[in-house]
């Protein structure tokens, strides 16, 4: 009898769990939003993850429920727990990932370094924060944002008027999150895996490069990361995973500031784009590690298999022709590249795949990864 | 529109094509012999691979047909080709893998080094061969043998009487293959990948350790393999792939003799147990390479990612409890081990999974792989 993991959500993160599940011999089932999604091969059900009965029925045939995304409502998560279903990460942890205001408050309680922030309920409160922080700040909707959506840099409080108006119409009411605009030199990401029974493993800290608010490229490990920096980021990752009782993979997105501090930017309680390098570049990739963690199996070695790995996203894809038609030139010119595509139709800015390359020479590794990925764009 | 590969046969080799297909974005379909086979996740049809209509119907929805095994009858292969289906490896190549007498004759034409051999139609002819080769020899049924089945060491020609009797009742008639008993120091395997358009890539030669006629362990690359030996074995692999027009993965099993020659023992025209190390230990694993080759995509880099890789088969599995119940101790004690299981019920001697470990120190790598695999046995 195989161990059985059920994934709610049929996107590329669920898809990328299929390979390690098949290799280990774990039965993976997916509750997909629609037919033909990225994880369709493992989809055993199609339905609405916001409907408790749908998710409960799906959960009957698995040993543990985990997630492709963090959007499953707390009411549904609660119904699963009440029915005795093992859910990892649990509702109490996901609640923090689902609301950026809750996240900021909890990180503050844990003493984690983070940008100055405030919950602002109206234009006046936002303007007050702006005035106190040099006239510019980042405003975020607490819920539902991703890949740069729901995030806006403002220089005047009226620039968030539409979001305040939407809040006023929302039955839940609430506030917007405003954060100081951090003067950072680069962005980092720290991943850790944690099992329900407590074991924690930290991946090497990586550098992430964003374009237009979307992750474009990841370098693992982060270049010029002194031992002290690596210890600090790993400790932050472990403290958050333990402090918030996160199970499975946790990604902590960080700013490295001009004065050599690190500040927590965002959290993701699932496999994360910043860890795709590990599929080919670490002894235990993040998708295998996530499966092991949510099943409460011993965690694998997260160490890289080569000195450097670079991951470059394929964003948008070709306007004409499918991704696979581009394989021939990309693979011919870059035999060391590992090409991943997600079975998604290309459209502007959409993450439809990625390329990883590992090796000894960072310049060459980065060149190969960027050049191979470029073959899939126009 | 994704590239589509159809695999005839639902065993573990088809299963192990699933992970690289999902990662690349190739649609893999499997024609399985039964429900619930190793490759069930990708099975789109269940039926008899000896029935041309069944295989032709399956082939309608894919771009190329390839195989989990070499047992598809020539009549069925011919029907596919006649219908315009791309088949890799092709019938002319598979014919050689399907009949050991044909293989010996073709290798002789290619000038490949091999043991002395003969086609013997009766006891007298076998005894004559025995008398000329020191009184002992290896007798093989030309068709249908695998994992030591259909292979017998004899010291007297009457020891093959049952096989001669079976031949006499076979409408096809024919002969047995007899080969000299080679005085070898160890067994090696050379894998090469070849595309229809001609590109060939050779993997490093590996050492294979057999127990009771079944592959137990593989060390990659073969220890103490001098450059000259590696060149010789790679050249043998390339010559056979080109000479026999093999497409996809080819494995050449070799004897290394006490007088430092290599002799061809067996051929396999598919991914092979001797290449499982490459799933985790090479930049491009053999299953990904096979998919690329049969689709006539450019081949990937076959080089190892670490100095050493060791693969140990899980043969038989636990008498009590499933394989997955053994994960916890195996994974806990060997975090660098990559554990693969095939979704097969354990029974004595059956290949139900394997473990690979890669690293810098061969002694440690071999210890970790053997010890991790041992947790799955009784």
Automatic annotation (TrEMBL), chains A, B:
Cellular component annotations (GO), alphabetically ordered: cytosol
InterPro entries membership: ATP-grasp (IPR011761), ATP-grasp_carboxylate-amine (IPR003135), ATP_grasp_subdomain_1 (IPR013815), PreATP-grasp_dom_sf (IPR016185), PurK (IPR005875), PurK_C (IPR040686), PurT/PurK_preATP-grasp (IPR054350), Rudment_hybrid_motif (IPR011054)
One annotated GO biological process: 'de novo' IMP biosynthetic process
Its job: Catalyzes the ATP-dependent conversion of 5-aminoimidazole ribonucleotide (AIR) and HCO(3)- to N5-carboxyaminoimidazole ribonucleotide (N5-CAIR).
GO molecular function, one term: ATP binding
A Pfam family annotated for this UniProt entry: RS_preATP-grasp-like
Pathway(s) served: Purine metabolism; IMP biosynthesis via de novo pathway; 5-amino-1-(5-phospho-D-ribosyl)imidazole-4-carboxylate from 5-amino-1-(5-phospho-D-ribosyl)imidazole (N5-CAIR route): step 1/2
Reactions it catalyzes: 5-amino-1-(5-phospho-beta-D-ribosyl)imidazole + hydrogencarbonate + ATP = 5-carboxyamino-1-(5-phospho-D-ribosyl)imidazole + ADP + phosphate + 2 H(+)
Gene3D superfamilies assigned: 3.40.50.20, ATP-grasp fold, A domain, ATP-grasp fold, B domain
The keyword Ribosomal protein is annotated on this UniProt entry: no
Species of provenance: Microbacterium terrae
Keywords: ATP-binding, Ligase, Nucleotide-binding, Purine biosynthesis
Protein's name according to its UniProt entry: N5-carboxyaminoimidazole ribonucleotide synthase
